[in-house]
Design goal:
This protein is of the alpha+beta class. It has helices spanning about 10-25, 45-55, 75, 90-95, 180-190, 205-210, 225-235; strands at about 30-35, 40, 65, 80-90, 100-110, 110-120, 125-130, 135-140, 165-175, 195-200, 215-220, 240-245, 265. The protein folds into two domains: about 10-155, Fructose-1,6-Bisphosphatase, subunit A, domain 1 (Fructose-1,6-Bisphosphatase, Chain A, domain 1, 2-Layer Sandwich), CATH 3.30.540.10; about 165-265, D-Maltodextrin-Binding Protein, domain 2, CATH 3.40.190. The chain has a six-stranded mixed β-sheet, sandwiched between helices. A three-stranded antiparallel β-sheet has the order 11-13-12. A two-stranded antiparallel ribbon has the order 1-2.
């Protein structure tokens, strides 16, 4: 393992952040607030964010995180490269205690994700990808959430499924299944395809498609850039497309408005 690999710092950050999240998750109760956008915020979000910021602040790149104060676009637009962070993606799943929450860290260059790390603290599954190397991996982490001796192993490499059958496995959100998504499913059925809906929370929806456990992920509900950047990188690295539905072009990052359009993840 090359400790100078650009993925090492975000990987270590995600593992340490995951441990800080579980320290809160294991409490009998924890504090939860509601933010201005009506989304929940727990002390685990803040603890994870503090850990990640501590690791990334000494890198050459500025940080855009859900839980940081956002810089004005007049400043951000000059950032050719930046980190995009969601310290706890799937806070609703965290509150439900179903384990389907993640730490998301991506590196963005000229509006495109080039590195992506998604860590699932509850199951200790680590997804990571280098888009330029066209390689994505899934590694099971030890119980102490430490950096493993071996990363980038060929046995851990993931790839999407080659779906040549009649069944299409469609990823649906655990908390955001809506009429537009149901209409998409009906459209597939009208084309003669049999549909199996696979439900997951957080950025795990990207991972399902990237590792071949689902075929497509239509997202017809609001997301922010930090929700998608790491998953986008992982999917791109394995040859999938993440296409904005309004422009039919690839999702773009560090926009003036950090809200994503609806999108589709597919081959």
């Amino acid at each position: 393992m090359n400790l100078n690999d650009p993925l090492i710092i975000p990987i270590i950050s995600s593992l340490k952040a995951g441990l800080s999240i579980l320290n809160v998750y294991d409490l009998p109760d924890f504090n939860t607030k509601i933010k201005k956008d009506k989304s929940p915020l727990t002390e685990a979000d803040l603890a994870s964010n503090a850990v990640i910021n501590e690791f990334l602040k000494d890198t050459p790149y500025p940080i855009i995180s859900e839980e940081n104060k956002q810089m004005d676009y007049t400043t951000r637009k000059s950032w050719a490269t930046c980190w995009m962070v969601d310290p706890l993606d799937g806070t609703k799943e965290f509150i439900k205690r179903n384990g389907e929450f993640t730490v998301n860290i991506a590196l963005i260059r000229k509006g495109k994700p080039i590195l992506g790390v998604i860590y699932v603290p509850a199951t200790r599954e680590l997804y990571y990808a280098d888009v330029n190397q066209k390689a994505a991996f899934k590694t099971l982490i030890a119980e102490d959430h430490s950096l493993p001796d071996q990363l980038f192993s060929e046995k851990d490499r993931i790839k999407p499924a080659l779906n040549t059958g009649s069944i299409v496995r469609v990823v649906g959100s655990r908390s955001h299944m809506n009429q537009d998504t149901l209409d998409y499913v009906e459209g597939l059925k009208k084309k003669g395809r049999e549909v199996e809906v696979v439900s997951k929370g957080s950025s795990l929806k990207f991972c399902l498609v990237a590792e071949g456990k689902a075929d497509v992920y239509p997202r017809y509900a609001p997301t922010m850039e930090w929700d998608t950047a790491a998953g986008h990188a992982i999917c791109t690295a394995v040859g999938l497309k993440v296409t904005a539905q309004d422009t039919q072009s690839e999702l773009c990052y560090n926009k003036e408005n950090l809200l994503n359009p609806y999108f589709l993840v597919a081959p």
